[in-house]
Specification:
The protein has a single domain, classed as 3-Layer(aba) Sandwich (Undecaprenyl pyrophosphate synthetase), CATH 3.40.1180. Helices cover 44% and strands 13% of the residues. The protein is built from ten helices and six strands. The chain has helices at residues 12-15, 39-44, 50-71, 90-106, 108-113, 129-142, 158-175, 185-189, 237-248, 258-274; strands at 31-35, 75-82, 116-121, 148-156, 202-205, 224-227. The chain has a six-stranded parallel beta sheet, with helices on both faces. Strand 3, helix 6 (129-142) and strand 4 form a beta-alpha-beta unit. The protein is globular.
Length: 275
Amino acid sequence: MPFPSRYGFMSPVENKISPCVKNPDPAIPRHIAVIMDGNGRWAKSRGQSRIMGHRKGAESVRRIIRLSGDRGVEYLTLFAFSSENWQRPPREVKLLMELFISVLEKDIDILVENGVRLRIVGDLKRFGNRICKLIKKAELRTASNSCMQLTIAANYGGRWDITQACQQLAAKSSSGEINPDEINEELLSRHLVTDGMPDPDLFIRTGGEKRISNFLIWQLAYTELYFTDVLWPDFSKQNFADALQWFAKRERRFGKTSEQILSQALDNRHSEVSK
């Protein structure tokens, strides 16, 4: 059943993701994180309201979910609403909350049908009881899905994430649950809201800005950063393919030399052949 047209949802055919794909190809990022920038500018350039830009941007969200699933991406994380976005005009914030509610109520069936697990991360208390209940319901409905994990960062900030992790560790240290000497990068990572997810391999930001804007600032330490001038509502299948092609050409060294990376790749290949 297609979604209501006034929200610009896709047809039944476009809603369908390819059968559950797990892609071992290192040229395909396991985890993609996206800042979806440019909805307002897209609408302004067409003489439309900003909320129309957000509704059009929702179509691109559904498109990138489908495209990521088709390519075998295991984790997709989208920056939907930052902790700074509350400073926008009250009418825009109100309409964004209404759109968020509509998506939580009407899009979940498509995620369930396609094996997509949904997680919403951020400081969710500010959203109020109705949205929090819808979030919990949506997460529970998709909890057993395993084809791809879709994470929506809402009222999220990277500094907030690190701060809340430190607060948890401080409380555990104060109670004697952990020794301060035990605190390291791995332990802190386990207290971030992204615990259980690999760090992003590829970061995509649309809209022409070249910054990460307080998004996953701990997790993006070794992520490949891809910036495009394309506004989010215009982000197409070809634009997504361009980003993946760019990623495939990157040499991810993680502090090692090119020679070490090549030697490791050869060793891995020999190991696979000998099995």
